[in-house]
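INFO  loader      accepted 1 record
INFO  loader      residues=347
INFO  predictor   begin
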Amino acid sequence: MTHPQVTDASPPDTASPHARRTWTLSTGARSVDVEVSAADRDRLCDVLPSLGAALGRPPAGLWSASTRLPDDLPLSAPQLAHGVVLGVDGPVPGADRRARSSALELRVVGGPDAGRAVPLGQGRHVVGRGSDVNVRLDDPDVSRRHVVVQVGGGSITVADLGSTNGSRLDDDELDEQPRNWATGAILRLGASSVTVTGPGGAAAALEPGPAGRMRLRPTPRMSSPAPEIEIPFPRPPAAPPRRRLAWVAVALPAVGGVLMAWLLHTPTFLFFALLSPIVALGTWLSERFSGRRSGRRDAATHAVEVLAAERALADAVATDVRATETARPDLAALAAAARRRTQLLWS
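INFO  predictor   done
INFO  writer      dumping tokens
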């Protein structure tokens, strides 16, 4: 790749000083970086002869992506900004593929390839260490064909392909059955961690500047301290009291009934003497069974309250993790923000 300097032959103008901008001219077979020194008031046709001298032949036209640029286009146009890639005599190679690329990305957030992002279009994508996969990870702990990701029908699924070290989606072990992969969930395979996500992030506030540069208008970023969240866990229920049989209360009426029947020679008192222990024993059994039912009911209520507290704790932890990731984004998120010029970095 060469780096010639191109200077136009337009007459000097003190009101429009010359400024330098760099373009990459792609002919398909090779790319040439050129530095153009021209005024913003100049037009593309003013620098085409000098570009032809740098290329060794006059260009038939310049293209931005798949659109041919008019020769009278001002150099201040966004298509001719500093750092753009322009096609010579035809569209920029790969422009159609980039235009059709999916907004969905597979981002490597941990491991040897941390920071890498791969577009995920519709269809089947095999992830692994082999040379014949769609997404290759340079991780010795990853199998040659580790997992398969299927994108389509409004959902994303992932399944393990019988890998040596296995794979986990968040805390769940994967097998050969496809599992739904929610955006933001972490897939761990080998020493690598990957996630799928959309573009996200608001675009940075940019405005045109001289020489094809862009001026950045920083957006104030207000951060408030994370609120403290307290998750109360219920106390375990008290054990039901052990109800003892009052033997004195059972024996005294029985003994009294027997004495009365003997003294008064009235057998009817023997019936009351027998009935009193039966009533006392029945009352004791009823209270004991009622206490057990109450204990089981309290234990079930406590289990439900503990489950609700555990869910609230898990939600609080997930919220804290998301807040931490937002405040301290991973390398893949930073690379995507730099590439797409979002407010995550450009503010």
